[in-house]
Amino acid sequence: MENDGIVVFRTHGIRKEEEAYICEKGLKSIDATCPFVKRVRKHAVYLRKHGYKVVIAGDKNHPEVKSVLSYLDNDGIVLRESCSIEGRKIGVVSQTTLNWETFRDIAAGLLGGAEEVRVYNTICRSTRERQKEVVETAGLVDVMLIAGGKNSSNTARLYEIAKQVQPRTYHIETEGDLDPEWFSGIRKVGLTGGASTPDFIIDSLDRRLKNL
Questions:
Q1: What are the average pLDDT values for consecutive 10-residue runs of the chain, which has 212 residues?
Q2: pTM score of the predicted model
Q3: How much is the pLDDT for 165?
Q4: Is 87 helix (H, G, I), strand (E, B) or coil?
Q5: Which of the following is catalytic: 18, 19, 64, 181?
Q6: Integer Cα distance of 58 and 36 in angstroms
Q7: Domains of the chain
Q8: Is 64 a catalytic residue?
Q9: 134-162 as b/e, with b when 16 or more CB fall inside 10 Å?
Q10: What proportions of the chain, in percent to the nearest 5, are helix, strand and coil?
């Protein structure tokens, strides 16, 4: 990269070694890391500094989790489901977009193997509210649609949550994914999108649904 360029830190954050490289090269940068992601990192670093074995509840392949883990010098454990870990002091943080129920189960599962478990609820507030709204909406409709990228962790969580309430839930990206057979004989359709789903996608889906 040219030295007169500008590096933009993505919302999920960058790894510690990447930040060190940018500083070493004297590159200009704009930190667009989500404040909630920075909060996860701050709590995780604090826990490690104070002698806790840090557990990150989330997806080990998600860039946010990779970023947080790097600031622990990769000295942490990533869990996607509940299990018991032996240790005197365990500290827990969460990927910001994780399903609340999954986070709760992981934190509770750690109580059986440790003398002390310290938990920071670092799920994004808007994520929690959106998940709650999805549960409520899915319980009122005949078909539920979750719009967003197939690689979006946030959207995938919403899909998982909605499908537990309404089996006829579909994860779509554009109106081209809509199948008219899904709506045969139904009266109510719920539609929502992930945090990064553009409004124009939701609007186009809404128009298409009204014309089915």
A1: 75 91 89 93 98 96 95 96 88 93 93 92 89 95 95 89 96 94 94 90 92 80
A2: 0.77
A3: 97
A4: strand
A5: 64
A6: 15
A7: 35-119 (3.40.1010.20), 125-210 (3.40.1010.20)
A8: yes
A9: bbebbeebebbbbbbbeebbbbbbbbbbb
A10: 45, 20, 35
